[in-house]
Amino acid sequence: FQYLKRFDQGCNLDTFHYKAHSVEGNPAQCLQQFLLHCGITDPSWSELRNFTWFLNVQLRDCEASVFCNPDFVQDTLHGF
């Protein structure tokens, strides 16, 4: 949710890192973001769960990768 919210606001996601147990927004805002970005017109709960699980895994791996660390790559992969 936090990444999607910042993406919609046009924030630089290269420097954002999720902080465990941090809470932003409310459940209705969270659901609205997922519905907006999941790519399915009328998703089931299972489809939303799969979307959020996949997105979470990808973002966690991205944050852990040295190749996605702006301090390491500097400006060589801007916008990647």
TrEMBL record:
Q: Which domain of life is it from?
A: Eukaryota
GO biological process, any:
negative regulation of non-canonical Wnt signaling pathway
Read off the InterPro entries from this record.
RNF213
Recorded GO MF terms: ATP hydrolysis activity; ligase activity; ubiquitin-protein transferase activity
Instruction: Write down any Gene Ontology CC term.
Output: nucleolus
**Keywords tagged on the record:** Ligase
What's the name of the protein?
RN213 ligase
Give the source species: Rhynochetos jubatus (kagu)
